[in-house]
Specification:
Shape: globular
CATH class of one domain: Mainly Beta
Strand content: over 45%
Number of helices: 10
Low-confidence stretches: 1-68, 445-453
CATH superfamily of one domain: TonB-dependent receptor, plug domain
Distance between the termini: 24 Å
CATH architecture of one domain: Beta Complex
Largest sheet: 22 strands, antiparallel, barrel
Oligomer: single chain
Structural class: mainly beta
Helix content: under 10%
Mean pLDDT: 85
CATH topology of one domain: Ferric Hydroxamate Uptake Protein, Chain A, domain 1
């Protein structure tokens, strides 16, 4: 009840504020007209006298006659060099009155009284507020914004000026996350940082994201190190509302200081904090969203199914698939839905035969599903104390029809940052983060979502329109052994996952010694995850309405519990010394890092529940199954960094880290990873002075460094371990233990080593209006962990792992930003573009199998056959020998493959590089040329933000679910796209003739069915309005902004409309497009 009252009060305040604003606007429209750049009253102002029109040379500004109680203020706005600054916005704070400076920087404005405040703002300069007082003439100087000159960027164990960076580093602020209906930080970062590649495997509620920086670093996978306030955390558990900035360290020089875990790059997340001497500020954000899937698979109806299945059967068996009785009943119901949906067929009197025209998409899925996000924070500070505390809540429902199952995800986030200055040389800080989530989703069973228990598609391969939802007895229907998916969702049980994640961090900063700072922090994390699974018995019914058995996937019913208890702690102790001597600047940093982690887990299961819908192990009669485990690892390292610059022109940085990990044998446990980078600022050179008016920054960068990867398979890969378990059968009434002998292991496993070279340039032009950076890089990953040399078959064991593979990755990053204004309209535009490709340079594959890695292998490459087209006659089909691909009789309408090796037949050869038959590389699934474009516009209280994101090149192999599934067997759903099949009347069709089974040539990987996965997507469109302060303060609010946001609203792609181009394929749970309304309120 309390929450409802709070929400209603909030809504009432927003409505009241909007109403007051509307009334104010009505009054303004009737009372004012715009003349030049100045608002003038048409009811009070007298005609201008002679001489009151001032010629500025560039434009004419109408000078108002001062009103009673007002004073006219004139002045000039200058830049940092004292020159007049044209185009500066001069606004009377809290009102809509404003003007802009002329070509010489002059302005005039009618202020209200002595307490009025003028706000001066211009792109590339700091906004300044000046109280009028008794001034009638002002001379205002604006300072260059810290965008380039003084902006600090978070780097490893500290921060540096952006202009002095010599590594490849990109930063975004919380602005990219505002007003967006996102459940995790990864969704908000997609397309905002070049070569930060983000993948969301599905649109399932609560689904997280995965990252890579500049492509895959190793064939063993791996992800970047994510540090939140310097501490490793799961980025998917954070609330986007708590984020202040995100910095990505891309090259080895920037990441080397993190050593053992930085081989895949580093993402530094800084959360919000309070400010000293700042009054308490309360911020509330609320977003209500309606989601809908970005793609839907339209299945054919019953009439088309009759035509398709009969065509397929007639060509092979010489008769129709459906007999006359069934077709008559189907068409009767198709033409008149009041006719029976199921009949008793003479050939099967004990079962109902479906003759319906069911749209299973409407039955199984919600058309729209809601999501809501709410957050509240308070921040502030005194002379020596600052604080920030927030509480966030997300509630997200899923695509599953809520009448069948309530699929949902919710999460609470609590974060507190406290800092206290004990003395002028000692500062203490505490950070607390609590994340609690729960997800509920349908059961894991072969009849539902197949091998995708949580994130798989809700679409069913084994359901089609002729099957009704219920039979005439009101019971769930089935088609032979084909289950009713709605029944499984409704009665099949459920799965839940609960996560409780708590982080505690204490930090001390000591500045007792001049020019020196010492830091020490300790963090502790405990994370508990509990999963529960209940699979219930699901019966099927005969024509009499009696349960005649249970589906195999649900029998026996069962319940299982799995718990994961993770603990982690980290200690960082480091200090830095900074000294400036004339034009020389030196900074030394050194420190120590120790991390320990343990992962304990336990799983228990029991079958044969006594009561089907009461999932407790104590109420089950079957055998108990239990297992558990414990893994641990530790990292210890020492690190150092040297920064030197001369006159801010010549820049040098050295990083080094000596790391040790418990994952390797003692003799190879420690390694040293150095890096070096240099920079040259040409804009600081004397010979460059003539260009300084246009060029604010021109810097060249170069770096080279080495990183280590200790994220190898398992926690003890160098130890031969035994595997013990109970056997699955009884001996003398008991299940004895069995022990499996270990395979071969390599005692010399050690680090994968990643070296990276980077060249870059940074440019800023026109008073920092245009900023750009460009980087090219090459990364070599050596000693990747993989199988060792092929062993003789007589040993009958698998090759042990060893450091036996190398890979090269190369690519580029491009970032361009433009900021400007047109009159009173301010706008920004950002373009990012990046690319990468990777190639294997060393790998043991003596046979040259194309199914394995080999030297020269490009990651993502797709091998397959080349399709020439469709046979138009039976004679053509028989003439070409394709029996090696498919042994069935070939006919007109079948695919014909190109004989690449010219031997007169189509084969796959030995599937080796030396003998690939007619196979070749026909595509590559690596996303190439990823890009993003964002622009935002602000005019008075109105703001517009538009964001596009896409991939320019990618091949997708969709020879799987719903694309070609109609060629696998007769008990599957068929999409409408499949109706473009070959027939004598449709010789130019895309799909071959209908084939019910045995179509290995169709489902083989081939050029005809490789899809162009390139796309351009309108990722976000947001329109907001900020109510003037003079209005919002009347209802007790400092700032009120209301907004509308649309996400994934439009997509341009050539890909077939059965899968989202962002997803791995149509078997994935679809992504969603959304429409949102929200408000940001500050008190």
């Amino acid at each position: 009840m309390g929450k409802a009252l709070h929400a209603s009060t909030l809504v009432a305040k927003i409505v009241r504020a909007i109403f007051l604003q509307a009334m104010c606007m009505v009054c303004l429209v009737s009372a004012y007209e715009v003349s030049g750049k100045q608002l003038l009253s048409n009811r009070i102002a007298a005609p201008l006298a002679k001489g009151e029109r001032k010629n500025t040379g560039a434009m004419e500004i109408m000078e108002p006659i001062p009103q009673a109680g007002r004073q006219l203020v004139r002045g000039m706005v200058r830049d940092e060099k004292g020159a007049g600054l044209p185009g500066v916005s001069v606004i009377l704070k809290g009102s809509m009155t404003g003007t802009t400076t002329d070509g010489n920087g002059n302005f005039s404005i009618d202020a209200v009284d002595e307490t009025s405040v003028l706000v001066f703002s211009f792109v590339g300069y700091l906004t300044r507020e000046v109280t009028v007082g008794n001034q009638s003439q002002m001379d205002v100087a604006l300072s260059v914004a810290p965008t380039l000159l003084d902006e600090l960027v978070v780097v490893g164990y500290g921060a540096q000026k952006k202009v002095n960076l010599t590594g490849a580093v990109s930063t975004v602020t919380s602005e990219v996350l505002e007003s967006r209906p996102i459940t995790n930080l990864g969704q908000g970062l997609q397309g905002t940082i070049s070569n930060l590649n983000i993948n969301q495997a599905s649109g399932s509620p609560g689904q997280g994201t995965t990252f890579n920086i500049r492509g895959n670093t190793s064939i063993n996978g791996g992800s970047p190190l994510v540090l939140v306030n310097g501490i490793p955390m799961d980025i998917n558990l954070l609330s986007p509302n708590d984020i202040e900035s995100v910095t990505v360290l891309k090259d080895a020089a920037s990441a080397a200081i993190y050593g053992a875990r930085a081989a895949y790059g580093v993402i530094l997340v800084t959360t919000k904090s309070g400010k000293k001497k700042d009054r308490p500020s309360v911020a509330i954000s609320s977003i209500i969203t309606s989601n809908a899937p970005t793609t839907r698979i339209d299945f054919i109806d019953t009439r088309d199914r009759i035509a398709y299945m009969n065509e397929a059967y007639m060509r092979v068996n010489g008769r129709n698939y459906y007999d006359d009785i069934t077709v008559a009943a189907m068409m009767a119901h198709y033409n008149d839905p009041t006719k029976p949906q199921a009949i008793i067929h003479p050939s099967n009197p004990n079962e109902w035969t479906g003759v319906a025209n069911t749209n299973w998409e409407e039955i199984l899925m919600n058309k729209n599903y809601p999501m809501q996000q709410h957050s509240a924070s308070i921040s502030g500070g005194s002379e020596k104390f600052d604080y920030y505390s927030s509480l966030s809540y997300i509630y997200q429902t899923g695509l599953t029809n809520k009448e069948l199952f309530k699929e949902r995800f919710n999460r609470y986030n609590l974060m507190t940052n406290l800092n206290y200055e004990v003395t002028n040389w000692l500062k203490l800080g505490v950070k607390i983060s609590v994340n609690n989530s729960k997800k509920q989703y349908p059961p894991n069973d072969a009849h539902f979502r197949n091998s995708y228990p949580e994130n798989g598609t809700i679409y069913q391969t084994n359901v089609y329109s002729t099957q009704p939802l219920y039979d005439p007895n009101g019971k769930w229907t089935h088609e032979g052994s084909i289950a009713n998916p709605a029944q499984f969702i409704k009665e099949g049980g459920q799965q839940t996952r609960k996560v409780n994640d708590v982080w505690l961090t204490g930090k001390a900063t000591i500045t007792a010694v001049r020019n020196t700072t010492f830091n020490i922090d300790y963090s502790f994390n405990t994370k508990s995850t509990s999963e529960a699974s209940h699979l219930a018995l699901v019966p099927f019914y005969n024509a009499a309405g009696e349960a005649s058995g249970y589906y195999g996937g649900s029998n026996p019913n069962r319940v299982s519990r799995t718990s994961y208890d993770d603990t982690y702690y980290v200690v960082n102790a480091y200090g830095d010394y900074t000294r400036t001597l004339g034009k020389h600047y030196v900074k030394l940093l050194g420190g120590f890092n120790q991390e320990n982690a343990s992962y304990a887990w336990m799983k228990a299961e029991r079958r044969n529940l006594i009561i089907n819908d009461v999932p407790y192990m104590s109420l089950a009669s079957g055998e108990r199954f239990a297992t558990d485990g414990l893994d641990e690892y530790a990292i210890r390292g020492a690190f150092a960094r040297l920064n030197y610059s001369y006159d801010d022109r010549y820049l040098f940085e050295f990083n080094g880290r000596y790391d040790g990990t418990s994952k390797f044998v003692k003799s190879d446990r420690f390694a040293f990873f150095p890096s070096v980078s240099i920079g040259w600022r040409l804009d600081g050179e004397p010979f460059f002075s003539g260009l300084k008016k246009k060029v604010d920054l021109l810097k060249f960068r170069a770096s080279y460094g080495a990183l280590g990867n200790q994220n190898v398979t398992g926690y003890y890969p160098y130890i031969a371990t035994l595997s013990a378990s109970e056997v699955p059968y009884l001996i003398n009434g008991e299940r004895p233990m069995s022990v499996i002998a270990p395979g071969l292991v390599s005692p010399q496993l050690t680090w994968e080593t990643v070296t990276q070279a980077n060249l870059g340039v940074d440019v800023a032009l026109f008073r920092n209006q245009l900023n750009a950076s460009f980087d090219i890089y090459r990364r070599d990953t050596r000693d990747m962990l993989t199988k060792s040399q092929t062993l003789p078959a007589v040993l009958a064991v698998t090759e042990p792992q060893s450091n036996a593979a190398d890979m090269k990755t190369s690519g580029f990053d491009l970032n361009i930003e433009w900021r400007d204004r047109i009159g009173e309209v301010r706008y920004e535009a950002t373009l990012i573009l990046s690319d990468y490709s990777a190639r294997i340079t060393k790998y043991s594959n003596p046979s040259g199998l194309i199914s394995d890695y080999y030297v020269g292998h490009k990651l993502g490459e797709i091998w397959g056959l080349t399709t020439g087209g469709l046979f138009q006659t039976d004679e053509q089909a028989i003439a070409l020998d394709q029996s090696n691909i498919n042994g069935r009789k070939r006919q007109a309408g079948d695919l014909w493959m190109v004989d690449l090796n010219g031997d007169g037949k189509i084969t796959r050869g030995a599937q080796t590089l030396g003998n690939p038959g007619d196979m070749s590389v026909i595509g590559n699934s690596t996303p190439r040329y990823s890009y993003g474009f964002r622009t935002n516009w602000k005019w008075k209280g109105i703001d517009l933000d538009v964001f596009f994101q896409g991939v320019a090149k990618r091949d997708v192999n969709l020879t799987q679910l719903f694309y070609l599934t109609q060629y696998s067997n007769e008990w599957v759903g068929i999409s409408k796209t499949a109706m473009d099949y070959w027939s004598p009347e449709n010789p130019d069709a895309f799909f071959p003739r209908p084939i019910i089974s045995g179509a290995a040539d169709v489902t083989a990987t081939q050029t005809r069915f490789i899809q162009n996965g390139a796309y351009l997507r309108l990722k976000q469109l947001s329109l907001g309005y900020t109510i003037p302060v003079s209005i919002s303060k009347k209802v007790g609010m400092e700032r009120v902004r209301v907004f509308f946001t649309g996400s994934n609203l439009w997509t341009a792609t050539r890909m077939i409309n059965i899968s989202d181009p962002e997803l791995p394929g149509p078997s994935s749970y679809p992504l969603y497009k959304s429409l949102s309304l929200g408000a940001n309120i500050n008190f």
